[in-house]
Amino acid sequence: MNDDLPNRKRALRAELRERRRIRTATERDTATADLTEHLSELTTRLGARSIAAYLPASDEPNIRPYLNWANGEGIRVLLPVSRDDGLLDWVVDDGESETEGPYGMPEAVGDVLGPIAINDVDLIIVPAASVDRSGMRMGWGRGYYDRMLGSMEQCPPVYAVVFDNEVVDEVPAEIHDKSVNGAVTPGGITTF
């Protein structure tokens, strides 16, 4: 492994966090409306009746209206709960109950279904710092989603949600990093 790779990832993550932090409220609102439209379109196109997604942090692309849409359509929505061992448990989204997770990120509250509940979904929506044009996803460095995706025998389509300028030519990748099938941005849906 290139010794400089972790430093390049750390620097890129810091740059992306800063870009996200300085977005205006108008930019965020427009992005949220567009993301909701594209995520709903993707879910409908794939005929997904059960999805795994996440509760976005304040600086992440806001997918909460999409989660509300999915719940309103009767689609089963699973949300992750971080475990101390680096795995994710899952709970069914009730649209209301959440708490602050171990890294200050919002997490759903509910009856824990365990890590294997993810095996029953038709579509997985994951957060990302950036995605490259080959589908390689760069997360925020804790490895939860890479471990989850790496453990699945049969994986449904996986789409990362990022802002348009976060789909780049190449992201620094290590052997444990997992790729995604596509990206959903305010500008549209890209399948790799």
Question: What does it look like?
Answer:
This protein has 192 residues and is α/β, with parallel strands linked by helices. It has a single domain (5-191), classed as 3-Layer(aba) Sandwich (Rossmann fold). Helix content is 29%, strand content 23%. It contains four helices and twelve strands; from the N terminus they run H-H-E-H-E-E-E-E-E-E-E-H-E-E-E-E. Strand 4 (98-100) and strand 5 (106-108) form a beta hairpin. Its EC number is 6.3.3.2. GO terms for molecular function: 5-formyltetrahydrofolate cyclo-ligase activity; ATP binding; metal ion binding.
Key attributes of the depicted protein:
192 residues, alpha/beta, Rossmann fold, 7-stranded mixed sheet, 12 strands, 29% helix
This entry's quaternary arrangement is: single chain
Rg from C-alpha positions?
A: 16 Å
Strand runs, count: 12
CATH topology: Rossmann fold
Query: What is the share of helical residues?
Result: 25-40%
Which overall shape is indicated by the principal axes computed on the Cα atoms?
A: globular
Q: How do the SSEs run, as a string of H and E?
A: HHEHEEEEEEEHEEEE
Count of runs of 4 or more consecutive helical residues: 4
| Biggest sheet architecture | 7 strands, mixed
CATH architecture: 3-Layer(aba) Sandwich
CATH class annotation? Alpha Beta
Count of discrete domains: 1
Task: Provide the β-strand percentage band.
Answer: 15-25%
